[in-house]
């Protein structure tokens, strides 16, 4: 049988990695897919760059700069969109679908923001949109959530799903680096997005979490409802104090089913240093999924890089190759649930989320200051789990001291109200730094 023909749009890290893996493992892949998979055309903004990226293999495939020509080519069966972003990528993907092409994409932003439109268009044309590479690079988490765990009522997902920030946090903790130096290191290693604010401000992780949440709970993708807080304002002192208290700080994506709605949030989070997720260091990713039947499962691997991400892209190409002749109604639905069965369960605002909290504040070391603070917390119904008074590291002799309070689970709006009252005390000389704690239980 003739190989299935792929048109590759974009040939940067992931595109060139896909080309390399497909060529290197073509025999094995053909034995799995039932027929060969061939990148028949490539379109890129800058063909000279793509030629350089493909090296010796560059002469084996036509490379141009006309994206539409690839999408409109009747010989192309699958369009692999590796451009990224929500601008031209959206137009090209919709046009490919309109032309009856299947789409494989690594574009998490596109699906988190425009997934509802794209999946509806794909359904109307009876084509597949496959996106394993959009979440956690080489970890087959979409496959696991959508198929492997399909028996379960999924209760929660908590993941380290941005390698750049995990690398930065590891470097800050292990080597005592400041944020900017650690970020520069992550960029030099090629982990960061073109615009690293997407990484450090939690946007990239929120794109990925939004997609996983939709698949886990059978809700539409709702990136605009995600709460997003990055690590750029995280102080080294909190990493240190957290460690003293037996915690590590990770940028976690957390989505959870509760009686009141779905939690969908990305923020720096204290987790016990004893949890497996806490030992995920450097640029590695890990996703913990809790299902009612299976219990807790953990998926670990490289979340970025040319070949790890290509591993996911090629897996999707194989899936599409196997299934493209199947009746569309018999394929796995894009979001795991039948489209007419998606639920309108509300996504909770962050004020409605329940969590443990780490509060750090600097106080004048005078009689009664702790009593005032604990009284305010008690009046707000907030129970204290641990309280630590530190000698100030920055100001040694002025009588001020850092106080760290760990609370039991409580509603965020109650904590915010208590923080406002605490900050108004004349004996409290700093703003309150507030971080969330996740027990992962
Ligand atoms: N910039 C991303 C990360 C890689 O650091 O994890 C792909 O999403």
TrEMBL record:
The EC category is oxidoreductase
Database matches in CDD domains: ACT_HSDH-Hom
What is a biological process (GO) this protein takes part in?
Answer: methionine biosynthetic process
- The UniProt record gives the binding positions of NADP(+) as 9-16
Q: Which Pfam families match?
A: ACT, Homoserine_dh, NAD_binding_3
Query: Which branch of life, at top level?
Result: Bacteria
List of catalytic residues = 208
Query: According to its UniProt record, which protein family does this protein belong to?
Result: Belongs to the homoserine dehydrogenase family.
For this entry, the protein name equals: Homoserine dehydrogenase
From which source organism is this entry? Trinickia dinghuensis
